[in-house]
Amino acid sequence: MPTHRTRNGGIVTGWAIMYIVAGVLALIGAGLLLALVRPQSAGKVYAYRMIGIMALAGAASLAASAAAPQGMERGPMTPHPFSRGATRAARPFTLFVPE
Questions:
Q1: How far apart are CA 94 and CA 51, in angstroms?
Q2: Burial tier of 25 (Cβ tally within 10 Å: 0-12, 13-18, 19+)
Q3: Residue 48, H or E segment
């Protein structure tokens, strides 16, 4: 995982930077959508709504992408209940699963 040094000597990893950018996008998107409370021209309403929703969607997507590598560091995933690695007791529909 790439890391970056801060001014005070701390290390910021790639996923932490992704969370920071996601937070900035969420704040910008929420600010633009909250600006719609005041009366605006039709062009501003369209632009603020479009950019605000896209910024919030980008923040959600980036935060989900930042959370994915952390989950992979925790260890291997358990097998899916219908995969070959699952035990017979873990399969909910044992009547229809061929052996």
A1: 50
A2: buried
A3: helix 42-73
Return phi, psi of residue 10, to 5°: -75, 160
Banded model confidence at residue 17, pLDDT cuts 50, 70, 90: confident
Measured CA to CA, the distance from residue 8 to residue 88 in angstroms comes to 54
Angle between helices 42-73 and 14-34 (to 10 degrees): 160
pLDDT of residue 77: 55
Beta strands in the chain (DSSP E): 3-5, 11-13
* Residue 75 Ramachandran class (φ > 0 left, ψ -120 to 50 alpha, else beta): left
Q: Which tokens in the block code for residue 33?
A: 């959508």
Number of C-beta neighbours around residue 16 at 10 A: 15
Measured CA to CA, the distance from residue 6 to residue 12 in angstroms comes to: 7
Of 29, 12, 25, the closest CA to residue 59 belongs to 25
